Structure formats: structure tokens, C-alpha cells
Amino acid sequence: MNQIPLTAKGAEKLRQELEHLKRVERPRIIESIAEARAHGDLKENAEYHAAREQQSFMEGRIKEIESKLSNAQIIDITKINANGRIIFGTTVDILALDTNEEITYQIVGEDEADSKAGLISITAPIARGLIGKYEGDIAKIQTPGGTREFEILGVRYE
Fold this sequence. Notes:
Helix content is 39%, strand content 27%. By secondary structure, the protein is an alpha/beta fold. It folds into two domains: 4-75, Helix Hairpins; 77-156, Transcription elongation factor, GreA/GreB, C-terminal domain (Chitinase A, domain 3, Roll). The strands form two sheets. A five-stranded mixed β-sheet has the order 5-4-3-7-6. A hairpin with a 2-residue loop joins strand 6 (138-143) and strand 7 (146-156). Helix 1 (8-37) runs antiparallel to helix 2. It is elongated. The model has no long low-confidence stretch (mean pLDDT 91).
């Protein structure tokens, strides 16, 4: 499997979720299964089947997180000197020239992306169009709605 780029913050968030699943959720679900077993006949015990299904989803998520972390290329943007160039992990302030709207994005890995929180995937058209540019540049980006122009107002490594 190829290495997956992940910011240091994104990796830490995954580690915290993994810890929570293993230390809190797993024991809770095991207790629910034991409780449901105590009720008798397992064939028609909806609580038991629901708890087993929860366990299956949770164990799948644990395996998924462990796999992502083991294949992650963790990039700490604060330790990279990119000389003002936009790279993976960079926080960028841009101005959409067509709407005069100022937007702030951080370019992150696919698993960390959350556009509502300003985190855009490295594979997103806007991120691909910004990579390699500098503050003051104009980026022409092909989006699903057509070509848009963005002025890069600021580049931060935080």
C-alpha cells in the first residue's frame, strides 16, 4: 500500500480516536453483549444482535485507523522550510476574484478533509491548483462550475 500523506494534527486526531475506541467503546460493547447474552435465547435477542453489529463496525474502524496510521507519511508543516511556496499542510488565505470572497483553507490528506472546517484534500481541484504557488500569485483553477481565479493573500505553515 502506498504511503498516505497526513498532517501531524490529523495523525494525532486518529490516534485519539483509536485510543477512545479501544479503551472506552470496546469495553462498553463487550459489556452490552454479555448483558444481552444473560437474557437467554440468542436467536431472537435483538439487543444481542445489535451489540454484535456495533462490535463489528467498531472493530472494522479500529483496523482501518491502524492501517492508515501504519501507512501514513506524517508531515509536520511547522518543521518544513518551503520559502513561501504552497505545499501539503500549508494554510492559505485566498480571494475569489469572481465573488470577492476571502477564504482560508488548509491543504490536508484525504482522510482529514472537511471543507466546512476549511480543510481541503490534497486531491481537490482547488488544492491542486494552489500547490506550488506563492503569496501574491493568481491561480486559475478549473472547478466543476468552470474556471475560477483566486489571488493568494497569505501562506502560513502552522
